[in-house]
Amino acid sequence: MADGPAPDVTQLLSQWSRGDHAALEALMPLVYGELRRLASAYLRRERPNHTLQSTALVHEAFMRLIEQQDVQWKSRAHFYGIAAQMIRRILVDYARAQHAEKRGSGAIKLELDEALAVPQDAGLDVVELSDALERLAGYDPRLSRIVELRFFAGLSIEETAEVTGLSPATVKREWVSARAWLFRELRGKKPNPA
Length: 194
Fold this sequence. Notes:
By secondary structure, this protein is mainly alpha-helical. The protein has 8 helices and 2 strands.
């Protein structure tokens, strides 16, 4: 490339969508670091003796992303939205495999942070979260998508609004609703004695 400003992620995604393999080469170092940061954040919330490493998670997510043939990448946020789906699927597949292998003792536990309004010490099985998101999708697919984008992709309110085509105010309002629904669902709908 000529001297000048480096292309941004959105430009590279657009070029890659049009079949420019050089764009993928330039894109890889830009997104790989962010994917690694996301993976590390999720894996830090797991049980201490987990066996899935962030490098393996990032590599698998990136490989699945570059295999996407029919995606017309619209923006950086769109890319990370798809990445969120990939990371979620990989974590759930891994947890289910571990669960099957060890009959429950190897289920991946994630710490739900304040993003879902659950106390920091509340361990959550990633399969339980995924199942709850599936139930939420049956109730309201848009709420489920917002949780996936915010929790699994780590997108901001503004980035989530961009991916979903909603206003930031709507995303904020629905994020609150989704968190409340998931909190009730994941706590077995038990009343909170406060």
